[in-house]
């Protein structure tokens, strides 16, 4: 099982979580409601996957690890996009961020992009737990294994700017992730988030970089 940042993992319960400190009460309660974790962008420690547990409040995020053996289901953002679960749920017609997914899907189809919802939207679609609020943005992951020119990124960013809600897009290259908006500006070097931490990269697809503080 290959896991990547933003993937969602369903597991059995709080007893599976590996952490360097006791679990806060909110973590235990959140896992009872929705035993799902989000894969963090960090190296895999032996057979333990770096994950984040989210609570109902924005400031409730807990970094931990999850053994591979504890994973019941592995859901990638692009699976959620293919399934289009927002079309079948009632909240998909009521919440702006979920309503906007049809726009995102159509935009990505036009540009022939492999995409998936992340953040609160992806979490709700995977877990069924209603964490998306009226103020939620739509976090989007675009898989870009091949070089994407900055001029094309500008076209994509312009189209996303017409969305009914704010769309926050991360371009996932084989090396890490960059912000679509930042990359579209064409000003290099750019901040690239990698498994080893943030670096400044002149080309997010090539291995020439300067480490960022």
Beta percentage is 25-35%
Sheet with the most strands?
Answer: 5 strands, antiparallel
Domains, number = 2
- Helix content class: 25-40%
Q: Which term fits the overall shape?
A: globular
Strand order of the largest sheet: 4-3-2-1-5
Unreliably modeled segments? none
Coarse structural class: alpha+beta
Helical stretch tally: 7
Task: Give the mean pLDDT.
Answer: 94
Taking the alpha carbons of the first and last residues, their distance comes to 32 Å
Structure in words:
- A 5-stranded antiparallel β-sheet has the order 4-3-2-1-5, with helices on both faces. It has a 4-stranded mixed β-sheet with strand order 6-7-8-9.
- It is globular, with a radius of gyration of 17 Å.
- The longest helix has 11 residues, at 150-160.
- It is built from 7 helices and 12 strands.
- It has helices at residues 25-33, 77-83, 96-99, 101-110, 119-127, 150-160, 180-184; strands at residues 8-11, 36-39, 48-54, 61-67, 71-75, 114-118, 138-143, 167-172, 177-179, 190-194, 197-201, 209-211.
- The mean pLDDT is 94.
- The protein is α+β, with helices and mostly antiparallel strands.
